[in-house]
């Protein structure tokens, strides 16, 4: 089978480890990992009309509307070298955005990382962060040497305001409502790849690699 350029998006709920997997995939395939957040920061730093609009939403902690998000992605993607392939993380977040992306670039693979809500809550609500150096710990998966204190700088570690169970449940609900339907969209196109995210990081990664090798993508 002819080798294909990895032109992929990766999506999954918070806590699924999609950021980590995106990074690992980008390294293995030697393609850029393009985070939606990076595109937004680039637009804002240019202080364009669009960028200033985005800033208004960000500073108020609001989600920018689809048309604004689409416009920023369209502008910023043009500035990235996509010729050797890429992995997009954080965009699209809903089917409308997925349809918009199809007008901009050719997507050949959509990687969906699945975890249950219960697991997402355990992973996210157990997170603690050092108040000083911002190192992340976890009650179950990454405990500090001394309970309640950072192993690196000795300062207290605390739960972040957006990691409470209530906020996590709200985010998961939004994910199921808006983002999860993208799975059907990409399945219909025949490019959906789903992996079980409730395994150690290395197993999830091997799962993805094995599955995409069968589809003709080789590093
Ligand atoms: Zn610290």
Account of the protein in words:
The protein has helices at residues 18-29, 36-45, 49-59, 66-77, 95-104, 117-125, 165-179, 182-188, 201-214; strands spanning 7-11, 33-35, 86-89, 109-114, 127-130, 136-138, 157-158, 192-196. The protein has a single domain, classed as Rossmann fold, CATH 3.40.50. It is globular. The protein starts with 6 loop residues before the first strand and ends in a 5-residue tail after the last helix. It has a five-stranded parallel β-sheet, sandwiched between helices. α2 crosses α4 (66-77). The protein is built from nine helices and eight strands. The longest helix has 15 residues, at 165-179. The chain has 219 residues and is an alpha/beta fold. Residues 130, 132-133, 135, 150, 152-153, 155 line the site of zinc ion.
Rg measurement, Å: 18 Å
Estimate the strand proportion.
Answer: 5-15%
Structural class: alpha/beta
Shape: globular
What small molecules accompany the polymer chains?
zinc ion
Uncertain runs are: none
CATH topology: Rossmann fold
- CATH architectural group: 3-Layer(aba) Sandwich
The named CATH superfamily = P-loop containing nucleotide triphosphate hydrolases
Q: How is the largest sheet built, in terms of strand order?
A: 2-3-1-4-8
Order of helices and strands: EHEHHHEHEHEEEHHEH
Our count of domains comes out at 1
| Highest CATH level, the class | Alpha Beta
Number of strands: 8
Largest sheet: 5 strands, parallel
Instruction: Measure the end-to-end span.
Output: 14 Å
Task: Tell me roughly what share of residues is in helical segments.
Answer: 40-55%
Provide the residue-averaged pLDDT. 93
């Amino acid at each position: 089978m002819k080798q294909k350029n990895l032109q992929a998006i990766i999506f999954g709920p918070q806590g699924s480890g999609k950021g980590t997997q995106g990074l690992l995939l980008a390294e293995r395939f030697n393609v850029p990992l393009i985070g939606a957040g990076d595109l937004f920061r680039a637009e804002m730093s240019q202080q364009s009309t669009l960028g200033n609009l985005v800033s208004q939403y960000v500073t108020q902690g609001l989600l920018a509307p689809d048309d604004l998000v689409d416009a920023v992605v369209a502008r910023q993607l043009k500035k990235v070298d996509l010729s050797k392939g890429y992995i997009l993380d954080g965009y699209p977040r809903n089917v409308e955005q997925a349809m918009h992306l199809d007008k901009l670039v050719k997507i050949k693979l959509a990687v969906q990382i699945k975890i249950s809500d219960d697991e997402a809550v355990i992973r996210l609500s157990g997170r603690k962060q050092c108040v000083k150096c911002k190192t992340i710990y976890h009650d179950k998966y990454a405990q500090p040497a001394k309970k309640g204190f950072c192993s690196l700088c000795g300062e207290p570690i605390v739960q972040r305001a957006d990691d409470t169970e209530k906020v996590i449940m709200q985010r998961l609900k939004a994910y199921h409502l808006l983002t999860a339907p993208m799975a059907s969209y990409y399945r219909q196109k025949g490019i959906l790849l789903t992996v079980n995210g409730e395994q150690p990081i290395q197993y999830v990664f091997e799962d993805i690699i094995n599955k995409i090798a069968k589809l003709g993508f080789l590093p």
